[in-house]
Amino acid sequence: MSTPASAPAPPGLPSPRATARLARRIAEGEPPLGRARRVGRMLRELTATHVDAHCELDFTTPLELAVATILSAQSTDRGVNLVTPALFARYPTALDYAQADRAELEAAVRSTGFFRNKANSLIGLGAAVVERHGGELPSTLEELVELPGIGRKTANVILGNAFGVPGITVDTHFGRLVRRFGWTTEEDPVKVEHAVGPLIPKREWTMTSHRVIFHGRRVCHARKPACGACTLAADCPSFGLGPVDPEKAAALVKGPSRAFLLARAGITEDAAPAPALDDAP
After folding, report:
1. Ranges for all domains in the chain classified under CATH 1.10.340.30
2. pLDDT above 70: residue 104
3. Are 71 and 97 in contact (CB under 8 A)?
4. Is this model's pTM higher than 0.85 or not?
């Protein structure tokens, strides 16, 4: 974990010394009760900060969400949402995907990237759902991960958002942030899921995934996190990886709820510079 900058922190933000103490305590083995309390405070703040957190893929049925999630690999949710209205109208059932003309399906999903592999997955998914599950997408983790194109991450997305079954979605944002937060040091997504799960009430697994992902997209960016505009700063051992000056950090905050996020951090939008260009996902 990087050592925070030595310059004094602005009012309301942790000092470099306080952040260093927190990072050292975590590295040396944070006591379970102390970790539970710290994570609890961060969860409450994430809930208050990202009130609009939700699945950003458009869907109306479990099958549609499965298809959209498969298409989202190496693509953006926005890009997938541009493709899926026509796709869902053309292929409303699993049987339609199973019987799809490969060239036509590839053309329909081309803009999402890796279109040949994705078309293969969708045709295979449709066939497997028809053959094994009577045309209806199953609602258990064990059955979902046996289907073409669906791994554990995709299965948890489907379970949590289409079936109401709590699941933790470990995408690149979630994994990066929980390591920055000091919730785990694991790199493997399945190990991250198992390490973080006990820290979060099970009923909150799905929404916490969304909130952490929103935080990663809007505030805690991969290359330059907006540390000086982050409401989690006091409990984050990585505070100082990005600009701690509130005005400089405010320029990095993005998304439709930018004004609200800045207000939560005590920064007025009028006093903040225009948002910076988007980071890569």
Report:
1. 62-162
2. yes
3. no
4. yes
Cβ distance 190 to 151 under 8 Å?
no
In angstroms, the CA 113 to CA 171 distance is 18
Query: What does the alpha-carbon distance between residue 114 and residue 120 come to, in Å, rounded to a whole number?
Result: 10
Mean local confidence (pLDDT), 15-39 = 95
Please give the structure tokens belonging to residue 59. 């869907």
The CATH number that domain 16-53+172-271 falls under is 1.10.1670.10
121: how many CB neighbours lie within 10 A of its CB? 22
187-200 tens-digit pLDDT = 999 999 999 999 99
Contacts 24+ apart (CB under 8 A), 40-44: 41/235, 42/181, 42/232, 42/235, 42/236, 43/200, 43/204, 43/208
Query: Are 34 and 198 in contact, with CB atoms under 8 Å apart?
Result: no
- Whether residue 200 contacts residue 208, with contact meaning beta carbons closer than 8 Å, is answered with yes
How many whole angstroms from its chain centre is CA 15? 28
**Residue the block writes with tokens 């009577």:** 134
CATH hierarchy code of domain 62-162: 1.10.340.30
Position 271 confidence tier, pLDDT thresholds 50, 70, 90: low
